[in-house]
Design a protein that fits this description.
About 20% of the residues lie in helices and about 45% in strands. It is of the alpha+beta class. The chain has one domain (about 15-285): Outer membrane phospholipase (ompla), Chain C, CATH 2.40.230. Strands 1-2-3-4-5-6-7-8-9-10-11-12 form a twelve-stranded antiparallel barrel. It starts with 12 loop residues before the first helix and ends with a strand. It comes from Extensimonas vulgaris. It holds the Pfam family MipA.
């Protein structure tokens, strides 16, 4: 999993849905009373629709959790860090979250969504590299900006793609293709499954998986310069478990397998692992 503010990858849509439910005015369950309030000659469906409360203009989810993930993309070793959990949503048009970064839906259609996206990708520090710090190059965490397009052919399924570029002068470009399926509820638990493929241009692949001549000589390996292509294939399970009307636990389990060109890197063969796993859990408050 490419650890980032998009894909620590979308947990709390369930929390937002619950928040909307809890904040709505309770519906009248007494059918006779509702009928008595309907004016003679009026359309009951139209009257009910007019009486329905408007959607909440703003919803937010805040919390604190922990994330365990690979120290760098392709790393064998992992680390655990505390993280703040944030999800701010304005009418499903603008969303800022720990898991998905920034999304601005400019289309906002029934089946089509798309617009602007902003994310964050972790770098690789000397501390992260450990014993390999003297042989391998380090690089900073970067922020990305780009666009996305998403199509929902049916209610539980969404298909999408994203294109992003580093805002710093790295020249790295990222691309994602993904499919997300909202699974049937398990009682009050809302959950989903997401699969995708992530790719980079040549500069990105060489930044994360390449080995220049100096580093190769220090490791006793041959230089390696992969071209553009897929970097990893991912599968992610996300769940929201409510604990009360306004609290719950957000969970994210991610599994990824590096692509063949990434696995062939001497960096991965010497210090990394072809399979990447991460887990996040957070206790949240939502309204």
């Amino acid at each position: 999993m490419l650890v980032r503010f998009q894909s620590f990858s979308a947990i709390t849509q369930a929390g937002l849905a619950l928040a909307a439910i809890f904040l709505q005015v309770p519906a009248r369950a007494d059918g006779a009373a509702a009928a008595a309030e309907t004016k003679p000659g009026s359309d009951p469906a139209t009257t009910a629709q007019a009486a329905a409360p408007p959607p909440e203009p703003f919803a937010y989810t805040l919390g604190l959790g922990a994330l365990r993930y690979p120290r760098w993309l392709g790393a064998k070793s992992q680390r655990t860090i505390p993280i703040p959990y944030v999800d701010l949503n304005w009418q499903d048009r603008v969303e800022l979250s720990t898991t998905d970064g920034l999304r601005v839906d400019l289309l906002h259609g029934q089946h089509w969504h798309g617009g602007l996206v902003g994310t964050l990708t972790w770098g690789r520090s000397r501390h992260d590299l450990g014993s390999a710090a003297s042989q391998l190059p380090t690089f900073d965490t970067t922020a990305q900006a780009g666009v996305y397009l998403e199509y929902a052919p049916m209610e539980p399924l969404s298909l999408g793609l994203r294109w992003r570029r580093d805002l710093q002068a790295t020249g790295v470009v990222y691309g994602d293709l993904y499919a997300e399926w909202d699974l049937p509820r398990l009682g009050y638990v809302e959950h989903s499954l997401k699969g995708g493929v992530e790719g980079m241009n040549g500069r990105g692949m060489r930044r994360f998986f390449g080995l220049d001549a100096a580093s190769a000589a220090a490791l006793g390996q041959s230089p390696y310069a992969p071209g553009r292509g897929a970097s990893q294939y991912t599968l992610e399970y996300q769940a929201f478990v409510p604990t009360s009307a306004h609290t719950g636990v957000a969970l994210d389990f991610s599994w990824g397998k590096l692509s063949s060109s990434a696995r062939q890197s001497p960096v991965i063969q010497s210090y990394g692992a072809p399979v990447q796993r991460s887990i996040m859990a957070a206790f949240v408050l939502h309204y």
